[in-house]
């Protein structure tokens, strides 16, 4: 498998890594439904997987974004767990509990890794849902293994509309100016209002105080690749997303994917919160 090397430097310090891991462990301890924890060994690295819900239900695999972990799905997870076998995967090289390895996104390494996880869990075809980098990962897997994806739900996905670095460049500068700069940076990148979502921004600031984010551009899928997405696709896009171009994402999906529906979420930026109910509705065929 292609990889960029063991990313032992994904945290600024070992003490910071401990802070992030302990915070995540507290979130998992307060999970709203019974939770099982697994560690799946793959050729790319050991991967932390969480499962909950009905073990006999139709599977759905949830993939978080960059600079995050599976806790992003926590608040409304009961909607899916009521009838589904829910599988949450901590992406490699992110602030979860998987190995600190970042794969080469220009190769099949990421799709091979995810296929190995599904094989290890005895999952053939599944529904997939992903946020940002998780959306890129889900899309890449669906393109390379279309027969293994029944429905594909994407929230502000990377790799379709392209990145708009110039619109978030000020955020990278602000993040160097202490806690206040990091908070303003998080507001710019996410599009969240700190007065409305203080706890979410507190969580993001804690992570990025200690975590080194990815800085390279995500590969953009070409037209022929996107045409392979013949399964039903739902894309939920922030109308004001400064990270990935929502208009181009919408236009390409509607033009190239035969069964795509796209919703621009008014007033939202890159962090489109509270979308699990809409995803659950889509996965149930509504």
TrEMBL record:
Hydrolase as UniProt keyword: yes
Official protein name in the record: Alpha/beta hydrolase
InterPro entries registered for this protein in UniProt: AB_hydrolase_1, AB_hydrolase_fold, AB_hydrolase_sf
One Pfam family here: Abhydrolase_6
Annotated AB hydrolase-1 domain residues: 60-274
UniProtKB keywords: Hydrolase
Superkingdom assignment: Bacteria
A GO molecular-function descriptor: hydrolase activity
């Amino acid at each position: 498998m292609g990889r960029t090397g063991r990313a032992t430097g994904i945290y600024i310090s070992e003490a910071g890594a401990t802070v992030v891991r302990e915070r995540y462990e507290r979130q998992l301890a307060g999970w709203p439904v019974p939770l099982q924890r697994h560690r799946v060994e793959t050729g790319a690295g050991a991967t932390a997987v969480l499962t909950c819900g009905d073990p006999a239900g139709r599977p759905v695999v949830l993939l978080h974004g960059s600079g995050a972990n599976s806790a992003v799905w926590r608040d409304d997870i009961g909607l899916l767990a009521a009838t589904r076998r829910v599988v949450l995967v901590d992406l490699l090289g992110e602030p979860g509990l998987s190995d600190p390895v970042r794969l080469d996104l220009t190769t099949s390494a990421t799709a091979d890794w995810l296929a190995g996880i599904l094989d290890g869990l005895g999952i053939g075809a599944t529904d997939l849902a992903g946020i940002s980098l998780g959306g890129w990962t889900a899309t890449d897997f669906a393109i390379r293994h279309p027969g293994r994806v029944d429905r594909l739900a994407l929230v502000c996905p990377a790799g379709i509309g392209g990145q708009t670095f110039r619109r978030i460049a000020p955020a990278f500068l602000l993040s160097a100016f202490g806690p206040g700069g990091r908070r303003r940076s998080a507001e710019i990148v996410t599009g969240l209002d700190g007065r409305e979502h203080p706890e979410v921004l507190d969580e993001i600031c804690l992570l990025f105080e200690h975590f080194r984010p990815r800085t390279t551009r995500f590969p953009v899928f070409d037209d022929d690749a996107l045409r392979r997405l013949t399964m039903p696709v739902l894309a939920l896009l922030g109308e004001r997303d400064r990270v990935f171009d929502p208009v181009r994402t919408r236009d390409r999906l509607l033009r190239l994917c035969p069964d795509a529906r796209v919703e621009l979420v008014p007033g939202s930026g890159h962090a489109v919160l509270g979308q699990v109910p809409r995803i659950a509705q889509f996965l149930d065929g509504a």
